[in-house]
Each structure stands twice: as structure tokens, then as C-alpha cells.
Amino acid sequence: MPFISIIVALIVVGVILGLINSMIPMDARIKQILNGVVVIAVVLWLLKVFGIIDLLTAIHVGK
Question: What is the pTM of this model?
Fold first, then answer.
């Protein structure tokens, strides 16, 4: 995936999350949970894009 596409995807996700946070009235705790889930999903996606998760799946603990 080209680097520009990654940057554009991050900007789009940020803008959508910002719009949701500002336009939709919801409790602060729900906003925190939503923001946390989105951040975790984006970090996992970035790790997958850069191939780090693929390296981690080859590590086995135990028998």
C-alpha cells in the first residue's frame, strides 16, 4: 500500500471521528470508549500494513 494512501486513510478516519465527536451528542464516557476503539483499530491496521503483525504471529509460546 503506497504511503500516500496510508496518510489519506488516516486523515479520513480522523476527520470522521472528529465529526462524530462534535456533531453527535453523547456521554463523555461513550466518546472515550469510541475514541479508544478507533485508535486501537487504527494501530492494529497500521501494524498489519507494515507487516509487524505477520512477524508476531510466527512467535509461539509453549509447546
Answer: 0.79
